[in-house]
Amino acid sequence: MALTQTADLPALSASSRARLGALGSIGLGAAGLLAFLLIWQAVPALGLVNPMMLPGPLAIPTAFRSEIDSGMWLKAVTGSLSHYGIGLVIGAALGVAVGVLTGMSRVAEDLTSWVVRLLRPIPGLAWAPFAIIWFGVTPKAAVFIIAVSVFWIVFFAAHGAVRGVDRDLLEVAEAFGFRRAHEKLLKIYLPAAMPGILVGLRTALGQAWMAVVAAEIFGVPGLGNRMIEASSLLATDIVVVYMLTMAALYGILDSLFLVAQNWLLRWKA
Amino acid sequence: MESVIDIRGLGLTFERDGRRTEVLRGLDLSIPRGAFVAIVGASGVGKSTLLRVLIGLAKASAGQVSVTTRSAARQPVALVFQDSRLLPWRRVVDNVALGLEGSGLSKIERRARAVEALRVVGLAELAGRWPYQLSGGQRQRVSLARALAVEPEVLLMDEPFSALDAISREGLQDELTRIWRETGKTILFVTHDIEEAVYLADRVVVLAGAPGRAVIDRTIDASRPRHRDDPAHSALIADIRGHIARPG
């Protein structure tokens, strides 16, 4: 049997073989996920771990429904998304601006190089004490921490991308009369650096998500905070609800970002 | 005849890592309006540098360069690079319209002019493509259209066909001859290909030596259309080849 199958394979067109391969990996992925859920359910069901410590996946939908019904889920999600969105936009905007400036100007690069070396190694979360002193345990503090985390990633991506812009293309702009910095910025630097900037933004998207949870664990209302509340009541099923919520939200945001990125970079072969 | 480009005693010295390289010295050249002049020479003799000075990408160290144009065009001189240098993030039509931005034309007018320039090089139907979807020959045609779109009086061309295969190259050479005859533009065409220079231009200037200077300046009075292997040109080609091999 195995022999006949092998002999049949070359008869399939390359594309249908690729489709079979894709179906095969989807199937394997689904099987893996199912196995994971089964093991997860079995561990508390078989008494290997106290169900209070680890609720099985079958317990999750009920907990999820009660969180929805109480309105807590929506409140936590909107809270987190608003810190996330505002922090991301502020951090990314500043990161692109400073990165592009230091990438275009040698003077700006030299001027900032030591400051960058000093501040860069400080993790975004190490700003939490100042965030709380300056803003209190408020959404502003979370926004600040998120913005700091995002800033560095986007700054380095933008700086590197602008430094790497093809000199030949800059000459094209000059040859056609665009010699002022803002003309070169708009005609060449920004579009040419866009692929690199987008790579940084995508990394920042993930980093910011981590910063959201971390900032909220300090007490700012949102997903992380609701999770900590639930864990202090040993409501581990609710903790899992929020862990899965974070995974789902991040998955959606990252997919939306990819769609936007593919459109922005549709000029690439 | 009035000259559109006047070069007097042009010298250019580069300084890189503390080392001075003199690329051009004492170059005199006067180019009448509407002429098709080819500049021939080995690589490194300063041909491209000359074009870069004319368009303002490089500064002369000595001498004077003047481009006298009749119109008040925003850009009287345009350059076609050796590699097409299209901006990959712009569609073909927007690449061609690049030089028109900042000219005060509306976007619709710029696009119309760009499509018109694409029509001149025979690529109007590719206006909506991205550069990566074009062949090497098509890219270079778009690059030519980009230069033509600004309606320059002088077209500078820096070995524009040297990276193309023989068939695309010959097609573009004939196209360029036609465009020159139709538009009456002044063309300064840099090449290291002697046959190309003799086939295209009505005057050939040979740069040789280090620093580079003009060693031959010859008018070609063959009628057009020309033939690629016209035996009447072989003496001139041999003469030029000899000068490039043994400058001075």
TrEMBL record, chain A:
Keywords per UniProt: Cell membrane, Membrane, Transmembrane, Transmembrane helix, Transport
SUPFAM superfamilies the record matches: MetI-like
Transmembrane domains' residue ranges: 20-43, 81-102, 114-135, 141-162, 188-218, 238-260
Membrane topology field: Multi-pass membrane protein
Domain ABC transmembrane type-1: residue ranges: 77-257
InterPro entries: MetI-like (IPR000515), MetI-like_sf (IPR035906)
Subcellular location(s) per record: Cell membrane
Main location: membrane
Entry keyword annotation includes Ribosomal protein: no
Keyword Protease attributed: no
Family classification: Belongs to the binding-protein-dependent transport system permease family.
Name of the featured protein: ABC transporter permease
Taxonomic lineage from the root: Bacteria, Pseudomonadati, Pseudomonadota, Alphaproteobacteria, Hyphomicrobiales
UniProtKB/TrEMBL annotation, chain B:
Domain of life: Bacteria
One Pfam family of this chain: ABC_tran
UniProt cross-references to InterPro entries, sorted A to Z: AAA+_ATPase, ABC_transporter-like_ATP-bd, ABC_transporter-like_CS, ABC_transporter_ATP-bind, P-loop_NTPase
UniProt KW keywords: ATP-binding, Cell membrane, Membrane, Nucleotide-binding, Translocase, Transport
Ranges in a coiled coil: none
ABC transporter domain sequence ranges: 7-234
GO function term, MF aspect, one: ATP binding
Family, similarity comment: Belongs to the ABC transporter superfamily.
Protein name from the UniProt record: ABC transporter ATP-binding protein
Species in which this protein is naturally found: Reyranella aquatilis
The organism's taxonomic lineage, starting at the top: Bacteria, Pseudomonadati, Pseudomonadota, Alphaproteobacteria, Hyphomicrobiales
